[in-house]
Amino acid sequence: MGHTNDVQLVPNQGWDERIVVCRNDELVDTFIVVTERYVVLVDTMINAATGEKLLDAARPHLTNGRQLLVVNTHADYDHVWGNQVFTGPEALYPAPVIGRRLSVDQFNAPKSQAFIQQMMAEEPDIFGDLRPALPTILFDERLVIDGGDLTLELFAAPGHTPDHAAIYIAEINTLLAADAAEVPFPFARRVDGLPQMRESLAKMAALDPATVLYCHAPVTIGPQLIYDNMTYFDKVEAACRAALTRGVPTEPAEDEVVVTLVGLSYDEATPSGEQWQNVHEYYRTKGHATQMRTMLEWLGGQ
């Protein structure tokens, strides 16, 4: 896919006015949370240009002694490659960058380093000046930011990635789920991440938030998406368990049509609403099949 440096502010559609939603084209939403003490940037988008635009959006709120803080929900490129604006020797606006300790491993993994080089070569206009910058304040399971009027509780929500975190703001019963829930579904990149991802969905549901904002879902979709994601994986598990009893292997050959083997189509596994139908064809086909392959392998290991 091609990338752009476009960043727009999403008009508020009912959430607390202290939360500003920023959007990089159709790729990702990030957030600015304005508290009495801090202006908190939740994720930094894809490069220095988009990171600077987030800073521009935050500047009007950096008044009355408020300090800027940056939070990384996880180390995926569309969430952290703007970090260089805020940390490192050439930081435009130095600020603490908070992330999970596991994010350092994600940053430094050979696969991540190779991906950086690939993106710089393929889209030099967007990524040519990339200088990856790691978080400077690390936490493991939980970290609380006391903003005075709002308290941001950062908590581990792994599965999509091992280092993933979400943010709950109790005073306004609002959850920033990041990539722990998505339309049409989140992905676990490793088999052992699948049960973790489902546990994270259950943990978020248990908070019973009134407002939920996601990095890859419409701002109007609300908390129901968490339950829809949970139901999707429940259906996939049930269908895969039934398939295993029929003799379907836990690791089907690459050329086998897994959706046909398991017998659960995308339309049967997802809600009938427009938002689930108007998704990229990848999710309806290969993405849905990948979920089944992951589930079959996980069940086979139990």
The coarse silhouette is globular
Question: What pattern of helices and strands is seen along the backbone?
Answer: EEEEHEHEHHHEEEEEHEHHHHH
What number of domains? 2
Terminal CA distance reads: 37 Å
Helix content: 25-40%
CATH topology of the largest domain: Metallo-beta-lactamase, Chain A
The percentage of residues in β strands lies in 15-25%
Mean pLDDT: 96
Rg of Cα set? 20 Å
Task: Provide a descriptive summary of the structure in words.
The radius of gyration is 20 Å and the shape is globular. The chain folds into two domains: 8-222, Metallo-beta-lactamase, Chain A (4-Layer Sandwich), CATH 3.60.15; 232-300. The longest helix is centred in the C-terminal third of the chain and has 22 residues, at 224-245. The mean pLDDT is 96. The protein has eleven helices and twelve strands. It is α/β, with parallel strands linked by helices and 302 residues long. The strands form two sheets. It has a seven-stranded mixed beta sheet. Strands 8-9-10-11-12 form a five-stranded mixed beta sheet, with no helix packed on it. α6 packs antiparallel against α7 (224-245) and α7 (224-245) packs across α11 (281-300).
